[in-house]
Design goal:
Layout lengths: L5 E6 L7 E3 L9 E4 L41 E4 L4 E4 L6 E2 L3 E7 L2 E8 L5 E2 L34 E6 L8 H10 L3 E6 L1 H4 L4 H8 L19 E7 L1 H8 L6 H12 L3 E5 L1 E2 H5 L1 H12 L3 E2 L8 E2 L4 H13 L7 E6 L3 E3 L5 E3 L5 H12 L3 E6 L13 E3 L3 H13 L6 E4 L6 E2 L19 E2 L3 H4 L8 E8 L4 H15 L3 E6 H4 L7 E4 L5 E4 L2 H14 L4
Parallel strand pairs: 10-11, 10-12, 12-13, 13-15, 17-20, 17-22, 20-21, 22-25, 25-26
Antiparallel strand pairs: 1-2, 1-4, 3-5, 6-9, 7-8, 14-16, 18-19, 23-24, 26-27, 27-28
Helix pairs in contact: 1-3, 1-8, 4-7, 9-14
Amino acid sequence: MNASLLRVRILRNELTPRRTYRAPWNNCPTENIDIPDTIRANPHINRNDEPNHGPGEPLDLRDNAAATPTGMVNSEITIEPITGIVTPYCSKDIASNSISIVITEMKTTIFLSSLSILSVIPVPPCMRRTHESHGLAVHVSRDTGVVIASRCLEGRRILLAVTGGIAAVESVKLAREIRRHGGDVSPMMSEDATRVISPLALSWGSGVDVITKWEPSMSQLGSFDAIVVAPATRNTIAKHIHGIMDSPIMMALAASRGNNTPTLFVPSMHKDLFDDPVTEELLSAVTDSGARVIVDEQSEGRRKQPDPVSIVAELCNMCNSSLPARRNVAITLGANRAPIDSVRAIQNASSGRTGWAIAEHLHRMGHSVICIAGKTSVRPTFKMPDVRIDGTPHGMLTIARDVASGDPKPDVWIHAAAVLDYFQEPIKGKRPSGSGNWTLELIEGPKHISELSELTTGSFRIGFKLEVSSSEEDLVNRSMEQISRYGIDAVVANNLDDLSSDNKPRCRIVMPDGKFIVIEDEMSMCDSIESLVSQHKLE
């Protein structure tokens, strides 16, 4: 195949020889994209008021603006007509986005943007999804880029208020975790916080400048979707409760109380201060005002700030719990284990990772989730609010029956557990080692999804199906049999061979009418299941 090349000429005080550049990726199939002859000029290309980024450092790619690189003052950049561009991408999916190209030569980085002529580009599965891409995987071309973990905060503007506790050192990680879930961070720091951590560090973590003092724009009165105060010192909490406005942060908090902006306080202080009855009164006043408070367990004589993943999970839940159609969801996950004697057992192979991922995503999206967990080798990434554990087949079924009979009853059931279908009655004591062959007679156990049918009438039910070395047609047919036999509303169908490959689908979601969708990755799987959960109409 004839590879087309991107040609760029840079005009300086002296003519630079024409050079051709090929994208430096190998071991990937290529395909051409036809490009019109007309190229729209970037209106920002000659902007000279940008800071000096230094040789070899990437330029600011935000807002589609290209700064003039070091040594290029008053230079002109032109792009010759392009007939095609080599694309080392492997995916068949097409993205309706423009492309930004970074070309580096001789320690000078030149950013060419506004190539709107590239109306479609294939998405490379080998490249990482970033906050800058907003949903489509692109190369991380900025040092401040983050990998998108979910879209739970997509389009949300989050004010991160950092006050003067020692936990302010965690603010960089917290800002980046918010961005990993699609949130746009607007950071503010109190004067005391700047003595703990540099505003420059938080600016790097959030990708924008930090507000530390009063400014004419009064940006603290802007429109925010949520506010996180982390760490929240007792002094800050007391000022907020008593209406003191002596800094941009306190003004922002006062305004948030006036316009009912969701606010999350993350106290961090010494145990003696936390146990002071005055602190308890202050935190009660905070929750009475409608704000949320998240605290960690006591450790080393302190109430430390929870980890960024836990804080952002609570933030996501707070932001999304007001969305319509939030449901009560019960999800079974993990494996079952049954003893064969006092020291030995048989167990299904399941880590519980998929179930935890789904449960966490539904919690972040504002649903109320009950986790019925069996044996798992993977822990959730944050503490779920309601987890009930029993690894035996009968024990898990008993918990599920109690949940199904409880009040309120779950609107949705997700049967993701690898239930042990066959087991035997255990013998008493231990069978001695060296006793020769041991023949086990396994009996068929109850199907949980069937046993719960009468108790889950009116609920939306999603089953899971795992097959080995099955064709797509067989996998869909067996999923349809499960739907017909147990009266469930959808099946997440997995092929064990696919799960071990990054180039094969993550799963397929099969509906009662026989239609199915192919899911490429775990994040898309969680998004699709959440969509089914929220779109289900209660009977």
